[in-house]
Design brief:
heterodimer; A: 534 residues; Aspartate Aminotransferase, domain 1; 2 domains; 7-stranded mixed sheet; globular; B: 509 residues; alpha/beta; 11% strand; transferase (chain A)
């Protein structure tokens, strides 16, 4: 399926490229031949060839890896949604719905989720420290936020929140984060292992950059997967080695499947370098059991793979029978230390109950590498100087929220629990609604922020999609959007077992909007099936 | 199995090749010394607030209010926030889709991009399209995105000035491209000679490299020069002839300390030139909130503007931006505030002007103190006369060239926040450096660091002509510390020169 999508994208690009070249050849080139007088006095040897060349930056001359990578979460369907939204703004009755309901991206605050007050108080004070010692400030801010802001400022050399920091992030904040990890796992964490980044994505890019030398280097990735991984691997010119999550067992991760895929790719001459595990899963929402994680750690150790653990949804677990365990904790509890396993754990301020996507805060904890490798990671980090300070501060706050007894503890825990329990209710409502639709089966939302229901599309619908040159699930999503304003991401953007179709829906629209989504989706689905049922 | 998942040997070679001097050996040693309790004066990174520069009040007030929007509903908010900051915070929040905590469009908030476009139009006199402006996490990220799109492999070359800001060399290595150097003429105030460019391109082509892009840093880093309009025209003509995309690093456009030669953007000159060049030459211009009198480095805010890039390619660049979801939103607000500053009559206007003027004037004074300091050093000479080459007059004394400061004093075209003096090191010092396994200017800078705590960057990190050595310092240390810094520099330099000079001067005479 992925082939198909990539193939169709290529065709699209190819056709537009030909069109573009055609336009250029009839318009610009002769124009340039005729009017090259400003260049006339220059040595002609170097300039003569240029007029027949394409622009240095055009589709057929840019890095082909750029064209190859795909990012469906913000792809075609979102572009269409934005267009519809503009149309509604200028002409409110242009479409049979009043607003676009974005269920495509894990961006909670864009859908009305309120930030945690304490975090924002501290950030505001750190941004404008001049007011910290004003008495009026005490009337506007909680006492512990003022205290925390002082603490944080004291950790920043010169109290300079507008200065570049150490390229790994401010040391004091890394200390706080390490302490937070230690409290979470019960095993020590070293602040020097922590690299603060502008969200988790740049950290993933950094690791891919280090690991991938050529297309002969492979990275094991779950299918379905969050397309950051496929995009990043494509951009760095590596090979994605897929392993399939088993939908029948709630998107279970079988080590036998890992082994099989590893062997297959090795036989093709691919050096598999790392294994990506997303836990809780995106888009699949499953939470791994500890036993399963142990088997994964053992596998990585045996095969000499770097374990890239995407743990950005660690706070988003909605079922009492499941608990989040970090891979660091699991491997340390197995007695595996620095020398036994290379492990990178990614965390972000964008998810959890905090959902602070716009801040671009995150970190990776890097363990099990030699000092020389660590130095190289630091060097790559330093090219971009440092991550944004506001995001760094927030990353330290989410790893050390108010404690029992702090003035803000009650409001903080009420806000946190309110958000998490509402998310759990929303997940359940949507899951139930999906399960009631004809031909749709839906996994249980154990964690993360998504549901990834499977849809059995009628033959006629698949034909119609083919005629429209779309993947069948993309076709479904597009029709849904046009009819209801609801934005889902087609499963083909995440990868899926060939011949199966899915879509991803976030559980993030505010609770009062959920009933409308359910009604509109149900009505649409019925008429869609009526139209195409055999 | 004894397999090591990732070790030095099996790492991406391009990563290993990356050199990044601004945070290289000198910086690491300085950090170590600092840990040991030694007082370090960091002049290695253009990081003004780390050295005591206070942030401008107004933008901080606005962003603080955006961080804590609940304050806007508090009746007492007016006690510590002025009315125009409150109004601006509301304005920017209304441009976001969910406040500072929501991802924005991957290109940045549309309303802020519109403000950037209006700023460009006011600056250049030509309309600018917000759709061709992408906000980024600092200018560096933008440069990396664009170079990632341009470089396909080793065969692709990018023309980069030498000396250069090492972001370019580092990024080109990282993406596996080839850096094609062109030398700035130190003897001509770091001017850019198009004949040098032609030669560089010819040499690169001879080696089978397709030169695809040209970087200019204007005002220059580390060299501080400001390009003239005539020079920019030559450059654009050159790009037209050679079919190069021009990458205009214009992050120091606010750091101009004189009035005779204002900053002129590449885009304005391109538009002034008219068709066919204005319709054909591809240009990407970069800007940031980190420099100027803002100096908000820690926010990581920047933008790039594209000219003559075909829409389909813009879409590809958009796609790459979207993989990182969005630039950080607080910095986008800072960018909005920078390009759309307060106007006369606003409550906070006077304070804003006082603060920004204060910073620029202090930078000017500090530059003066530094120049005088360098001049007072034994064997240290600054090039005061524009166009007159001291090197070519056959002086055998050790010089420290410092065009930037001399130009400042004489009101020449200067900008940025660096000094890049030349060090003429005695042969014995070069020999001692070899013994120690160091590049000579690294050797000098390390000794300087150990002796004085002044952390600089050796010129070899930026590139320089063979056998010529420099160091770069920023002019950013606090004004009151300057005299002491310069006197300890002088003490070190004079002793160093004396130690290695020996009979050098005499024998050369």
């Amino acid at each position: 399926m992925r082939r198909f999508v990539i193939g169709s994208a290529r065709n699209l690009i190819e056709s537009s490229r030909q069109k573009y070249q055609f336009e250029r050849s009839i318009l610009s080139s002769p124009y340039r031949f005729l009017s090259s007088s400003p260049a006339a006095d220059s040595p002609s040897s170097s300039s003569s060839s240029s007029s027949t060349m394409a622009h240095p930056v055009s589709l057929n001359t840019i890095n082909p890896k750029v064209i190859e990578c795909e990012y469906a979460v913000r792809g075609e369907i979102v572009t269409l949604a934005q267009k519809l939204q503009e149309e509604i703004q200028t002409k409110p009755d242009a479409h049979p719905f009043e607003e676009i309901l974005y269920c495509n991206i894990g961006n909670p605050q864009s859908l009305g989720q309120q930030p945690i007050t304490f975090f924002r108080e501290v950030l505001a004070l750190c941004d404008h420290p001049a007011i910290l010692d004003k008495s009026e400030t005490q009337g506007l801010f909680s006492a512990d936020s003022i205290e925390r802001a002082w603490q944080i400022l004291d950790q920043i050399p010169g109290r300079a929140t507008g200065a570049y920091s150490h390229s790994q992030g401010i040391k004091g904040l890394r200390d706080t984060i390490a302490a937070g990890i230690e409290a979470r796992d019960g095993f020590p964490a070293d602040p020097n292992d922590i690299f603060l980044t502008d969200g988790a994505s740049p950290a993933v890019h950094m690791m891919m950059q280090l690991l991938i030398r050529s297309e002969k280097d492979g990275i094991l990735c779950p299918i379905p997967q969050y397309p950051l991984y496929s995009a990043s691997i494509a951009l760095h010119g590596g090979t994605l080695v897929p392993y399939y999550l088993d939908e029948a067992t709630g998107w279970g991760l079988e080590v036998s499947e890992l082994k099989k895929q590893l062997e297959t790719s090795r036989s093709k001459g691919i050096t598999v370098r790392a294994l990506v595990v997303i836990n809780p899963g995106n888009p699949t929402g499953q939470v791994l059991a500890e036993e399963n994680q142990k088997a994964i750690v053992e596998f990585c150790k045996q095969e000499g793979l770097v374990l890239l653990a995407d743990e950005v949804y660690q706070e988003n677990v909605y079922v009492p029978e499941k608990k989040f365990h970090s891979f660091k904790k699991v491997s340390r509890s197995m007695g595996y230390g620095e020398k036994d396993i290379a492990l990178v754990s990614f965390q972000s301020v964008s998810k959890g109950y905090y959902g602070e996507c716009g801040k671009r805060g995150g970190y990776m904890e890097v363990t099990g590498f030699g000092a020389d490798v660590r130095e190289q990671i630091y060097k790559v980090a330093s090219v971009n100087l440092c991550s944004n300070i506001s995001g760094q501060i927030l990353a330290s706050l989410v790893m050390s929220p108010p404690k029992v007894g702090d003035e803000s503890y009650e409001s903080y825990s009420a806000e946190r629990d309110g958000i998490l329990s509402s998310l759990a209710r929303r997940a359940k409502t949507l899951e139930d609604a999906f399960s009631k639709l004809e031909g749709v089966t839906c996994n249980k939302a154990e964690g993360a922020m998504y549901l990834f229901p499977r849809i059995d599309l009628p033959e006629k619908a698949i034909k119609a999609a083919e005629a429209a040159k779309k993947a069948p699930d993309a076709y479904y999503c597009q029709r849904l959007l046009a009819a209801t304003g609801i934005v889902f991401v087609p499963g083909s953007g995440f990868g899926q077992v060939p011949g199966t179709w899915h879509f991803r829906c976030t559980i993030l629209p505010q609770e009062e909007k959920i009933p409308a989504i359910v009604t509109r989706l149900t009505d649409f689905h019925k008429s869609f099936m009526d139209e195409f049922r055999g | 199995m004894g397999l090591k998942a990732l070790d030095y040997e099996t790492m991406n070679e391009n990563v290993k090749k990356v050199q990044y001097a601004v945070r290289g050996e000198l910086y690491l040693r300085a950090s170590e010394l600092q840990k040991e309790g030694k007082k370090i004066i960091f002049t290695n990174v253009g990081n003004p607030q780390a050295l005591g520069q206070k942030p401008l009040t107004f933008p901080r007030q606005v962003v603080a209010l955006c961080q804590a929007p609940f304050l806007l509903d508090d009746p007492n908010v007016g006690l510590i926030f002025p009315a125009d900051a409150i109004a601006r915070a509301k304005h920017y929040l209304s441009l976001t889709s969910g406040g500072l905590g929501a991802y924005s469009d991957s290109r940045g908030i549309p309303g802020v991009r519109k403000e950037v476009a209006e700023f460009i139009e006011r600056r250049d006199g030509y309309p600018s399209d917000p759709e061709l402006i992408f906000l980024t996490d600092g200018a560096s990220k933008g440069v990396m995105q664009i170079l990632n799109c341009i470089i396909r492999g080793q065969g692709d070359g990018v023309l980069v000035p030498v000396p250069q800001y090492p972001l370019y060399s580092a990024t080109i290595s990282l993406f596996g491209g080839s850096l094609v150097p062109y030398y700035l003429e130190e003897t001509a105030n770091w001017g850019l000679d198009v004949n040098n460019l032609r030669e560089s391109v010819a040499q690169a082509r001879f080696k089978g490299i397709t030169v695809r892009a040209m970087v200019i840093i204007n005002p220059g880093n580390p060299t501080g020069q400001c390009l003239s309009e005539a020079n920019l025209r030559e450059i654009l003509n050159f790009c037209y002839q050679e079919n190069l995309v021009l990458l205009g690093d214009e992050v120091y456009q606010q750091n101009i300390y004189q009035d005779e030669r204002p900053f002129i953007s590449s885009r304005k000159v391109l538009m002034d030139m008219g068709p066919p060049i204005s319709k054909d030459v591809q240009l990407v211009s970069f800007h940031t909130v980190s420099k100027g009198y803002w100096g908000e480095c820690g926010q990581r805010g920047g933008y790039f503007e594209m000219t003559n890039i075909p829409p389909k390619t813009v879409d590809e660049i958009y796609k790459i931006a979207s993989i990182s979801l969005s630039p950080n939103v607080p910095a986008q607000i800072f960018m909005g505030l920078m390009v759309n500053p307060l106007k006369p009559g606003d409550v906070s206007y006077d304070q804003f002007v006082r603060e920004s003027k204060g910073i620029l004037e202090s930078l000017r004074r500090r530059a003066r103190i530094m120049t005088d300091g360098f001049n007072s050093c034994k064997n240290v000479v600054c090039n005061f006369t524009e166009g007159k080459s001291l090197l070519s007059t056959g002086h055998s004394k050790a010089f420290v060239f410092c065009d930037f400061f001399s130009a400042l004093l004489l009101g020449y075209h200067t900008g940025a926040m660096y000094s890049f003096p030349q060090l003429r090191l005695p042969p014995k010092a070069i020999e001692a450096a070899k013994q120690a396994g160091k590049v000579p200017d690294v050797f000098y800078c390390l000794k300087l660091l150990e002796a004085t705590g002044i952390s600089t960057v050796p010129g070899s990190g930026f590139g320089q002509k063979e056998g010529v050595f420099h160091l770069r310092t920023t002019i950013l240390p606090a004004e009151e510390d300057m005299p002491e810094i310069m006197s300890s520099f002088k003490k070190f330099n004079d002793e160093f020169m004396a130690q290695y000079e020996d009979n050098w001067n005499r024998s050369r005479m």
